[in-house]
Here is the input.
Amino acid sequence: MSRSKRSAVQRYHDRVAGCYDDSYEDAYWQWHNTLTWDYLKPHLPRDLSATLLDLGCGTGTWACKLLKSGYTVGCVDISAKMLDQARMKIESAEGGGGSGRATFIQADLCDLSALPAGGTVFAIALGDPIGCTQSPALALKQIRRVLTDDGVLVATFDNRLAAIDHYLTLGDPHSMTRFLGDGKTNWLTKDADERFPITTFDPGGVAALLEAAGLEVVDMVGKTVLPMRHFRQLLATSENRRTWAKVEKSLCRNPWAIGRASHVQVTCRVARQ
Here is the structure.
């Protein structure tokens, strides 16, 4: 696909695909990803023959975890180069034992017509890919279409309230007022042609967005309530990471504490009629 026909989100992720994981290898991200898996794991289907979807799979970090757990996984991403990285990561993981249970689909989350309706019992959308689409509401309706009637989605969203400090540093109350109203911002990159829109949501807005798509929340956590990305030195050892994880987990479901988290991770199921 030519550069002119690729969207900004495709252009950016195609360019950074080869070095994307380099930014997520320190102690903070080890801690963060362990929490993500701990929150997700209780909701996984018991049937290991189920085919799961990793929506916005990126380089395949979570697909590898799901494959290692024994599932078949459909890896979906808008970026062909991200899918290439995911394929290589899956093939190299433990000798490529899970590669035969992985498929790769290039698709925008706003158009999942390549996937059958009602064919997926469990899907993840981690790393906020829904908010990076042109229409999060449409993306969720597409995801609802591919889920079974008892299907489950685990997704993360950028928390609008966490960006308040950034807008204070700009010293522009008008920009903050606009942002708080619509939640729209941009992913800032050096190449302005690669800047793609992001829609953020406060915790109540996440719940309302999901409800409008025919999904009901069964679990919501703030991730992370503790601003540990600014205190990485406290996570230097595995013992420290476990200790701070206990503190984090004591806060993550407190509805008032969720509002200060950088992201919101939600588990939802298809709403019963």
Q: What stands out?
A: The first strand starts at residue 51 and ends at 55. The chain has a mean pLDDT of 93. Strands lie at 51-55, 72-77, 102-106, 120-125, 147-158, 184-186, 197-199, 215-223, 263-270. The radius of gyration is 18 Å.
